[in-house]
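Handout, section B. The chain below has 452 residues.
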Amino acid sequence: MSRLPIRIRLTLVFAAVMAVVLAALGAFLYVRLADSLDERISEDLDARRMALTRVVVGGGDVDPSLLAGAEGLARVIGHGARGPVYTETGHALLLTADELDAARTRSVTTDHDGYRLRAVPVADKVVLVGDPLDDRQEALDALLAQLLVALPLALLASSAIGYIVAGAALRPIEAMRRRADEISASTSAQRLPLPTAHDEVYRLGVTLNEMLERLDAGLERERRFVADASHELRTPLATLKTELEVALRQPRSAAELEHAIDSAAEETDRLVRLAENLLLVARSDQGALTVARDPIAVDALLAEVAGRFGRSAEAAGRIIEVEDSGAELAGDRERLDQALGDLVENALRHGAGEVRLHAVEHDGFVELHVTDQGGFDELFLPRAFERFTRADDARTGEGTGLGLAIVAAIARAHGGSAHAANLAGGGADVWLTAPKLLNDPDAAGRDRGSLV
């Protein structure tokens, strides 16, 4: 049954239900006709019994033929009669001896030899009337014959209608299936057709189209990711190739060769960093970016990051300040150091003025802020944490555009989030959140797992 097409299964179920309904209807009609015929016979017997009773009570001779009708019978049985009662010809049994004895004290209704009989006591006699059951049985047989022909035909007709209705109901789903079969990576913008009626099939189509939207958006991100990664890799690879080609040219002095090798090493380091960043983003997408949940003193973490960029800030005539908070969090020190380093590097490269690092405890999380006196373009803020996204010319420079995306990935891995905003008094504020340290450090940390 489960291997049959759903249209056939729906038709079979509909046919089974209709078979039960039609059988119940046929049985109801048969029983209702039998009851109606029995009621008519009973009324006829009562009418003739009352007429015969009036004659017996009033005295005089009884003419049974006048009371019995064309096919019925009527008899008055005297007090002295005993034993069974037969017709005048003696071929049909009317009443048994026991039924006759019972009829002398109460009304008795019974069927014998094709007759419905009713015997009632009247004075010291028994009045017996009867009607043949031939007509009743013929009517029931005729109805049964008609039902045996009409009900199967009705079942076939209703099954055919059910098959057509099931096909009509499934037609929108079949249209969706055909369209889905046509959708591929090159035609991912196509959507499933929706029926006009806002029913369950319509809601299914809407849900599937929303899923296709998400898949299409993910596919587009992957295409953009590959294109941007290829673009970012092309520049250092081309530079590296150029330096190596220059180093191979003859003649070259030792200083020139050393300079070429140093330049090639720098490009190699850049390629390594880019590959590591791409791997981190890919792991984040797959939910496989693992982080530790160790107790971390936030002030020490911020001071360490600030110290690492102290010379770069001094060379650029900038200052890095750290504001103590005494906060503690549960996280991966290496990953958080990497995220904060990216934020400080961005602030030094694209921002202006003093760079300040501070922490704020809020709703069970610790916010790690990096601010400077520059500012973001308002159009850039909604997509600040997208991959390979750079700000406008006022804050652009060298880089791959992966820094903030990596910050967001690390924040998500800790169960937090990343944000960027312009300060009300001017300046840029970028921060990420990580969970506060629990009361029991051993319970808070030491285990590692993906929290993406």
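Note. The mean pLDDT is 82. Compare this with the example in section A.
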